[in-house]
Amino acid sequence: MSDSVPPNPPGASYAEVEQALLSRWPETRLEPSLDRIEALTVLLGDPQHAYPVIHLTGTNGKTSTSRMIDTLLRAAGLRTGRFTSPHVESMTERISIDGEPLSEDGFAAAYQEIEPYLHLVERDSEHPVSFFETVVAMAFSAFTDAPVDAAIVEVGMGGSWDATNVADGAVAVITPISVDHAGYLGERPQDIAVEKAGIIKAGATVVSAAQAPEVVQVIAERAAEVGATVLWEGVDFGVEQVPALGGLMARFRGLRAEYDEVFLPLYGEHQARNAVLALAAVEAFVGEDPLAADLVREAFAEVTSPGRLEVIRRSPSIVLDAAHNPHGAAAVAEALQESFTFSPLIGVVGVMADKDYEGVLAAFEPVFAQVVCTQSSTPRALPAEELGEVAEGIFGVDRVHVVRRLEDAIEQATTLAEEGGAFGEAIGSGGVLVTGSVVMVGEARRMLKGRGERGVR
Prior knowledge:
Blueprint: H1 14-22, H2 35-43, E1 53-57, H3 62-75, E2 80-83, E3 95-97, E4 100-101, H4 104-123, H5 131-145, E5 150-154, E6 169-174, H6 182-185, H7 189-196, E7 205-208, H8 213-226, E8 229-232, E9 238-244, E10 247-253, E11 258-264, H9 269-286, H10 293-301, E12 310-313, E13 317-320, H11 326-339, E14 345-349, H12 357-364, E15 370-373, H13 384-395, E16 400-402, H14 406-419, E17 431-435, H15 438-450
Parallel strand pairs: 1-5, 1-6, 2-5, 6-7, 7-8, 13-17, 14-15, 14-17, 15-16
Antiparallel strand pairs: 2-3, 3-4, 9-10, 10-11, 12-13
Helix pairs in contact: 1-4, 2-4, 2-5, 3-9, 3-10, 4-5, 7-8, 11-12, 12-13
C-alpha cells in the first residue's frame, strides 16, 4: 500500500507525534468507510465497548454541549473521558480524562500505544489510516486505560461514516442541524440529517434539540427503524433564560425535575439551549432518579467553553468565537446584542475557503460597525483580499478593512474600537469580536495570551 506513514522511534516526543499525525490524511480528505477504524479497533480489543458512551452529532454546539455533559457527569461522581474536535490550540485538547486534556507526554504515549497496529491495518488497506481515525482510536484506548465510567464522544463530521461511529452510544445527542460541510454532507438540512442520524443505534435514547420539521421526520424515522426512543427539546425538556452579569440565569425543565436559578457563565440563548440538552442527556444516561438541584447548579457554574464567546481581554474587550457557518454566526450575533453593550463592535473575520463565508458575513453585518478581513495561517484559509471583496458587497466599502496578518488585524480593530470608529460612538465602550473559524480563534487565543493578556473565564 502507498501513502503509509513511517513509524516513530521509541519514546517519541509530543512534537514528533504531532508531526506524524499531521502527515496522515487530513480531516478534510474523506473516504466514506468504517473499514479501517473497525479493523484498528478490533486489533486494539474494541476499547470503545469497554464503557457506556454518550455520542454527539449536529451542526453547531457539539463541543460546548459535550463539555457541559462532562461537567455534570463528574459532579455526579463518574470518571469521564471526552473526545472533541477540532482543537482550539493544542491537539491534546481532543482527548480529556476527568475534564483535563492529556498531557503532551500522555498524548504521545497514547499514540505510540496504537502505532504498531496502524501499520498492520495499512498493510491490508487501499488507503492509509487518517489523522482523525488515528486520534479516535487513541481516545478509545486511553479511555480504557484510565479507565473511565463514561465516554462523551463528539463526531468529527456527519455521523454514519464518522470514525467515532464504531462506538454504540447508549445516549445519542443531536444538536441543531443546519447546512455545513455542504460539499460532503449535502445541500439541504434533511440530507445532512440522514447522515447525522446514523449515530442512532438500536435501543438508544435520542436527546434532540428543537429541529426543523423536515429534520424531525428524518430523526424520527431512523429512531423507529432501529427501536430507539426520542426525547425532544420543547416537548420533553426545555429552558427559560435571561442574561445575567457574566453569563445567563436559567430555569431548566429536565426529564426528571425542574431546576431553578441555575447560573451559566456563558453567553447567549444558544448556550442555554446547549445546557438543557446536556442536562437531558445526563438525566437519560444516569437513570430514573432526578439529579440533585445543588449538583446541577454547582456543575453549571463551573462550565467553560474556550473560543465560544470567550472574553479574552478587557479595555477594550476582545471576544473570541469560532462561528464558521451562517447558523452559528446568527446565534453569536444575537447573543452579542443580548449580553454586551459594545459601541462600536468591530469584527475581525477570517474564514476557510470551503465555507459559506458570504452567509457568515451577512449574519454579522447588523452588529459590526466595521469589519477587518484577515486570514489564518492554514492553507485552507480564504485570502483576506478575496474575503474583503465579498465583505464590501455586504457592508459597503467604507466599513471594510483588509489586513492580511492576524496580529495586525487585531491591532487595527482594537484601535477602531478604542477610538469609536468612524461613527462617533463613546470612546472606550467599543469591543472586538474575532471569528470565522476555529483555527482563527486558536491563533488569536495563543497570540493574546502570549502577550501576557489575562484571559477571563
